[in-house]
Amino acid sequence: MSVIQSIASVAKPWQELYSHSKVIAGAVTYAHIGGLLVGGGFAIASDRSALRAIKGSAAERAHMLREFAAVHRPVILALTVVVLSGVALVLSDIETFLVSPVYWIKMGLVVSLAVNGWLLMQSERRLVTDPADTNRAWVLLRRGSFASITLWLCTALAGVILANS
Ligand code: HEM
Asked: Which of 112, 117, 111 is nearest to 141 (CA)?
């Protein structure tokens, strides 16, 4: 028995429940979409504010950095809901998803999104300590914000392709 088959046999009761209950399937998918709506929505809105504030005054940048720091907790909470519901979705049909190249591309995007988010937090912390125009962290914050917007949109696209493949 392969690793995937043994995981599938352990996940069988959940797969049965998921495939026979529209309410449970709907609730898990809603948790997944709801989580990305909140997490992705807050993240992309903050990225946009950062890209605008970087060209603005010192006061605008200071305000943006405070807002940026305050948004991490709800984004990480929402991403946790996305990941937990994602695992529930994978376990609902493990033999399909774990052999899907689209699924693994998507997981690569999710990991890139998390790493980029961590790097953004490091740049933000450096700028809170030293907000000088010359601080190279402003360039990293700009690049990280563009990467964040791109990664959220690409991950959502990979999710839709996965759901329809
Ligand atoms: C930021 C991270 C993520 C985003 C933006 C995202 C987005 C999406 C979207 C938009 C869909 C399509 C839903 C539909 O049309 O029914 C989807 C489906 C799916 N996602 Fe995610 N997802 C993310 C993370 C994850 C993670 C971490 C996992 C697994 C651990 C995962 C597993 C799945 C699976 C298996 C489906 C297909 C569900 C089906 O066929 O009904 N996702 N995702």
From this structure: 117
Residue carrying structure tokens 């937090």: 121
Q: In the numeric block, which tokens belong to residue 137?
A: 């962290």
Q: Which residue has the tokens 């028995």?
A: 1
Q: Is 115 helix (H, G, I), strand (E, B) or coil?
A: helix
pLDDT of residue 165: 82
The kind and range of the H/E element at 27 are helix 22-53
Contact 158, 102 (CB under 8 A): yes
Q: How far is the CA of 141 from the centre of ligand 1 (A)?
A: 27
- What pTM was estimated for this model as a whole? 0.90
Give the distance (Å) from ligand 1 centre to CA of residue 94. 13
Give all domains of the chain, ordered by start, each with its CATH number: 3-163 (1.20.1420)
Question: Would you state the structure tokens that stand for residue 59, as one six-digit string?
Answer: 């006061």
pLDDT higher than threshold 90 for residue 116: yes
